[in-house]
User: Which sequence fits this backbone?
C-alpha cells in the first residue's frame, strides 16, 4: 500500500497521463496515444485500490453497472474468437476492443473531481480549435501556392494532415462545440473566457460545415436547439423559446447556402430508391448529384439490408468478431451488390455491427450498457455526458463507431471519464485515487 505522499504523487502522474492522452488523441500520433493509454494503468497498479479492488463488488455491485457492461461486451467478443473462422481478423478486433477493459479499470479506482474534468474538457476544446485552425491555414497555403481547388477545403481534404477519418474528426468538433456550450451556461469560467469560448464555438461550427458530416451536423443542431428551448422554457420565456429554435433552423439553412458542397451533401440523400445491381459510384460532394448514382443514405440502406441477412442466419451468437467483414461481403455477393463487394464496406451501423459479431446477446448487453449510462448521467445531472451520449447514440446509427481504434480511443475514453465523474458526484469511496489539483 502506498503512503499518503506516494498516493498524491501517483495522482499527479495520472493527471499528466490523462492530459497526454487527450492531447495525442487529437494529433496524428496514434502510436503515442496508445502508449499513454497503457501508461494510464501504472497509477492504477501502483495504488492499493488497483490491487485490492473487491472483485465481487466490481462484478456484481450496482455501482459498477456501466463498467460491467464494457467487460461483458469484451467477454462476448473474446468468446466469439473461438468460433470465428478468420482468426487473424479476430485478434485484430480484440486488440481494438482492449480499451473496453483498460478504461473501466483505470477509472474504476479514480475519483474525478469537477475541477479536473473541466481541465480535461477545456484542454480538449482548445486543442481541437488549434488543430482545426492549423488545418484551415494549411489549406489556405496550399490553395494560394499549390493546387487551387476549393474542394480541398471540404470533408477529408480539410483535415488530411491530421490523418483522421472525417466521421471521427467531425465527432471531435461536435463534442468541442458541446463543451463550449456547457461552459457558457455554467459559472465555471471567467467572463473573458466565456467570450473566448463563444468565439471558438462559432469557429468550430463553421469548421463542422466544411467537414460536411451530415449526421454530426444534424446532431449538433438538434442538441443546440434542445438546449436553447429547455433553458428558455425553464425561465418561462415561451415565445422566445419557439422563436429561438426557429431562428436556429433558419440560420442553419442560410449557412448551407454559403457552403455549396455541404448543401450538395444533404441534397444527395433526397433519393431513397436503390438497386443492388447498381454499379455506379457514390455521389461526391464536389460533383453534380445524379439519381442513378448511390448516395450516402441509399448506400447505407443497402448495407443494412445485407447486415440483416447475416444476422438472420446467425441470430443468437453472431458470426464472431473475426468474420464480420467476410460475412457481410458474402451477403453483398449473394445480393449481387458488386459495388459493395469491390469496396468491402462495413455495415455502417454500430448496433448491427455488434449483433453481427456477437448476436442478440451482444446487442442486449450494448443496450443494457447504454441504458445504465444514461440513467447514471440523468441521476447525477451530468448534462455534458448526456450531450456526449446523444452524439454517440445517433452517430452509431449511421457509422460503426466502435469498429476501429480511432473510434474506440475517443468514445470509450470520454464515456468512462464521464462515468467516473458521475460516480464521484454520488460518493467518494475509500481507497480511491483522488484527482484533485493541490
Assistant:
Amino acid at each position: 500500500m502506498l503512503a499518503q505522499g506516494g498516493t498524491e504523487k501517483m495522482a499527479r502522474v495520472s493527471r499528466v497521463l490523462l492530459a497526454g492522452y487527450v492531447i495525442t488523441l487529437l494529433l496524428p500520433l496514434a502510436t503515442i496515444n496508445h502508449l499513454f493509454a497503457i501508461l494510464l494503468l501504472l497509477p492504477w497498479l501502483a495504488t492499493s485500490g488497483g490491487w485490492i479492488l473487491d472483485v465481487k463488488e466490481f462484478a456484481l455491485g450496482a455501482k459498477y453497472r456501466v463498467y460491467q457492461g464494457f467487460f461483458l461486451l469484451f467477454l462476448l467478443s473474446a468468446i466469439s474468437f473461438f468460433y470465428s473462422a478468420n482468426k487473424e481478423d479476430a485478434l485484430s478486433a480484440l486488440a481494438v476492443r482492449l480499451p473496453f477493459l483498460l478504461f473501466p479499470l483505470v477509472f474504476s479506482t479514480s475519483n474525478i473531481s469537477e475541477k479536473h474534468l473541466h481541465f480535461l474538457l477545456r484542454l480538449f476544446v482548445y486543442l481541437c480549435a488549434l488543430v482545426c485552425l492549423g488545418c484551415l491555414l494549411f489549406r489556405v497555403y496550399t490553395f494560394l501556392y499549390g493546387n487551387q481547388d476549393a474542394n480541398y477545403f471540404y470533408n477529408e481534404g480539410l483535415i488530411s494532415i491530421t490523418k483522421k477519418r472525417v466521421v471521427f474528426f467531425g465527432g471531435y468538433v461536435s463534442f468541442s462545440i458541446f463543451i463550449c456550450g456547457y461552459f457558457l451556461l455554467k459559472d465555471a469560467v471567467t467572463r473573458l473566457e466565456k467570450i473566448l469560448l463563444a468565439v471558438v464555438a462559432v469557429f468550430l461550427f463553421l469548421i463542422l460545415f466544411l467537414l460536411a458530416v451530415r449526421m454530426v451536423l444534424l446532431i449538433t443542431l438538434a442538441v443546440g436547439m434542445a438546449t436553447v428551448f429547455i433553458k428558455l422554457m425553464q425561465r418561462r420565456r415561451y415565445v422566445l423559446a419557439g422563436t429561438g429554435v426557429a431562428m436556429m433552423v433558419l440560420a442553419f439553412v442560410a449557412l448551407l447556402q454559403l457552403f455549396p458542397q455541404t448543401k450538395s451533401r444533404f441534397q444527395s440523400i433526397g433519393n431513397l430508391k436503390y438497386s443492388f445491381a447498381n454499379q455506379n459510384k457514390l455521389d461526391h460532394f464536389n460533383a453534380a448529384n445524379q439519381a442513378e448514382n448511390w448516395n450516402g443514405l441509399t448506400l447505407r440502406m443497402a448495407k443494412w439490408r445485407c447486415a440483416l441477412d447475416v444476422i438472420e442466419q446467425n441470430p443468437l451468437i453472431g458470426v464472431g468478431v473475426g468474420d464480420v467483414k467476410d460475412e457481410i461481403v458474402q451477403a453483398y455477393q449473394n445480393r449481387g451488390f458488386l459495388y459493395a463487394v469491390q469496396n468491402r464496406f462495413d455495415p455502417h451501423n454500430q448496433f448491427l455491427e455488434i449483433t453481427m459479431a456477437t448476436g442478440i446477446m451482444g446487442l442486449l448487453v450494448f443496450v443494457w450498457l447504454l441504458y445504465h449510462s444514461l440513467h447514471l448521467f440523468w441521476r447525477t445531472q451530468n448534462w455534458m455526458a448526456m450531450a456526449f451520449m446523444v452524439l454517440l447514440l445517433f452517430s452509431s446509427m449511421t457509422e460503426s463507431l466502435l469498429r476501429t481504434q480511432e473510434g474506440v480511443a475517443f468514445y470509450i475514453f470520454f464515456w468512462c471519464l464521464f462515468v467516473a465523474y458521475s460516480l464521484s458526484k454520488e460518493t467518494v469511496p475509500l481507497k480511491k485515487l483522488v484527482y484533485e489539483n493541490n
Summary: Residues 261 and 285 are 5 Å apart (CA to CA).
